[in-house]
Input
Amino acid sequence: MKIALVHDWLTNYGGAEKVIESFHSVFPAAPVYTLFYDQNRLPDSFKVMDIRTSFLQKVPFGHKKHQWFLQFMPLAVEQFNLSEYDLVLSSSSCCAKGVITGTGTCHICYCNTPMRYAWDFYHEYTDKKGMLMRSYIALQMNRIRQWDRVSADRVDYFLANSCHIAGRIKKHYRRDSNVIYPPVNTNFYHLNGDEKKFFLCGGRLVGYKRIDLAVEAFSRLKLPLWVVGDGEEYKNLKKMAGACVKFLGKVEDTELRSLYQQCRAFIFSGLEDFGIMPLEAQSCGRPVIAFGGGGALETVIEGQTGLFFEEQTVDSLMNAVKNFIKLEAGFSPKVIVAHANHYSEKRFVLEIKEFVTQKYQEYFMKNGFAGRTSKPS
Output
């Protein structure tokens, strides 16, 4: 039986790319179809994969500025010829779910989120644009939104990476989905007992992550905050930061692990689909101070593994930090680690194997292909 993996783009390494990495560990013979691929920005584990890119890969600056080419992505993803495969497993937060498959192919989509900039965060993405740019984006997004909704019907079975995203899938695509939480490398990220020196936040420094809330809050509190990662908001964040805020840029995994182990708490101020970094921090025994919305509500236990703040405002975060300092001694690193272990890579692999096997067999039985119900491999 032949299997193909599909992913939107491979131009940086984040939670969605870790999902593809795990998919490939389950199905190592499966090729990976993707719109763009930048080998220099991904770990060596991707070099052993059979990665097949779209025609957009040849466009100048394509793999560095893939956002510029959103209007061409539906066309590009529909050009992948997947007719030879029995099973397609896509990982999608944009267009990957829109691949065209035939009746003889079962398509399972692991949805990291319905397209953010077309649906939930559309107005946030356009509010700061000029009038002409907003008008252009509105026209393009209207078309993209229609394609995105129609292409969701091409998926045979949806998986969501959180209950929060399952709700979005139901809202925008009118489809039911099963939830399998993403993999967290709980073996690599572990408790070390280092001295707690600072607060930590980071990830991709883009607007919706709301790192600005943490930077301003800790600048006003005059408490040490270390920020990891890079992105388009890097310069703006540095301008607004006080002397107690330190920017480390992009760091290697071993250094990130050490930072988790040394921090007093990890600050998570965005409304996220799921959020891998809070669980990596918890794997190192560190509590999380998170905005009480989105995926954080499913990964942080109030009073046991962290605290929530109710509003995405500087004052609300500051109050949560002050409250944390009062309660800090009561957080048990061992309890926090035990909670994080429920999200391990081993658990993810077992759940994916079970779901794919079950739905693959169900699909072909339902469509009259009783002879094609062998297990995916």
